[in-house]
Amino acid sequence: MKTDKTQDRQGDEMASRRARGATMQERVYNELRRSLMTGVFIPGEKVSLRALAEQIGTSMMPVREAINRLVAERAFEVLPNRQVKVPVMTAERFAEIAYWRTQLEAAATRAACKNMTPTVIKKLEAINQRIINAAEKDRRDELLPHNYDFHFTIYRQARSETLLPMIESLWLQEGPFTYYSIPSPKALWNAEHHNDIIKALKKGDADAAAK
User: Fold this and answer.
1) 72 — phi, psi (to 5°)?
2) Fewer beta carbons within 10 angstroms: which end of the chain, N or C?
3) Please, which residues have CB within 8 angstroms of residue 116's CB and are 6 or more apart in sequence?
4) Same domain, yes or no, for 176 and 104?
């Protein structure tokens, strides 16, 4: 017969296992989201759940759960044979995503301007320097994650539970295409745009920062 202490201990162990499982699912989900938003995946690429699990260092279950969530967010799609792949970007879809990104990110930047602090400004300056360094080395794999960090450091200052998920959703869909749309960061990257944003945020000029 189980004692109350035994039942309590078993209950604690079950709760602990569930918590670890939930934590791993969130970790896998967040890793895949960031990889999508920073161009790690290729448009049209077929994704192996087993390979992802081995790469991340986990079992298939949290990977499958994360993929299902990302399919619902249109970051992946499931083929009739149940294979998972990164959607191919069309010109029409890209134009629509770009339009809404412009609208939503401008709104988030204006809202963030009111909440900007010297600490966040210093963080943006440091990130922007890393972007410049990556561009000079022609390293897209470094530039895009830093670019993500730069923009989302600003958007989080908007402190909006509505805007941020909407912007993230658009980056999820556009991210795989963005990497391959930049033939040479050194040739195309212009740090002045980010410098102008930082200057505007320092002045509290929301309209200039949102341009």
Assistant:
1) -65, -25
2) N
3) 157, 201, 202, 204
4) yes
Tokens 């890209």 correspond to: 94
CA dist 197 → 106, 117, 200 (Å)? 11, 14, 5
Which of 85, 120, 143 is the last residue in one of the domains?
Answer: 85
Give the pLDDT score at 128. Answer: 94
> Contact 29/66 with Cβ under 8 angstroms?
yes
Please enumerate in sequence order all residues whose Cβ is within 8 A of that of 180, keeping only pairs 6 or more positions apart, or say none. Answer: 39, 42, 43
pLDDT band at 184 (very low <50, low <70, confident <90, very high): low
3 falls in which pLDDT band (50, 70, 90)? very low
Residue 18 structure tokens: 């569930």
**φ and ψ at 46, to 5 degrees?**
-85, 135
Name 50's Cβ contacts closer than 8 Å, sequence gap at least 6.
Answer: 60
Question: What's the pLDDT at 8?
Answer: 37
Q: Say if residues 189 and 137 touch (Cβ distance below 8 Å).
A: no
Report whether 43 contacts 87 (CB < 8 A). yes
Average pLDDT estimate for 32-36: 93
Domain of residue 125 covers 91-209
Q: Given pLDDT bands bounded at 50, 70 and 90, which one contains residue 28?
A: very high
Q: Which two tokens stand for residue 207?
A: 């309209």
| Domain boundary pick from 85, 106, 132 | 85
